[in-house]
Amino acid sequence: MKTERITNFEKLVSKEKSGWLEKAKWRQENQAWLEKSALIALKILRAISDQGSSQKKLADKMEVSAQYINKIVKGSENLSLETISKLEIALGIQLIEVVGFSSSINYEIPESILPEISKSTETKKDLPVEDEVYSCATISYSLAA
User: Of the N and C termini of the chain, which has fewer Cβ atoms inside 10 Å?
Assistant: First the structure.
């Protein structure tokens, strides 16, 4: 004879299998990129908050759906490099770093435009000699939490 508690419990239990074992195996097999995705998601959420923005505004800026941004910030989306780059541009932050890679670009400034630079540069009084080369900062990407 079934008690009232057992009857109520059986009403709550689904007859369909939950698939929890398959989901657990999938998470274990994909643990490496899921952890990185979660770190990226946290950094995105922090940037959105710091900028006083919203997921909807980010979606509009990236021309994607708000639902897609929501999937990203849940930390379970396998992001492409293209998507990561779009996120970095839209948020104005750095999300990943390619270890061991750096890039620098050197610009030679012709003597003919040095007077123009001196007019627009208020803080620097001493301009370099004509053969000096200016270089920009090294560009690097890092997975920062």
Answer: N
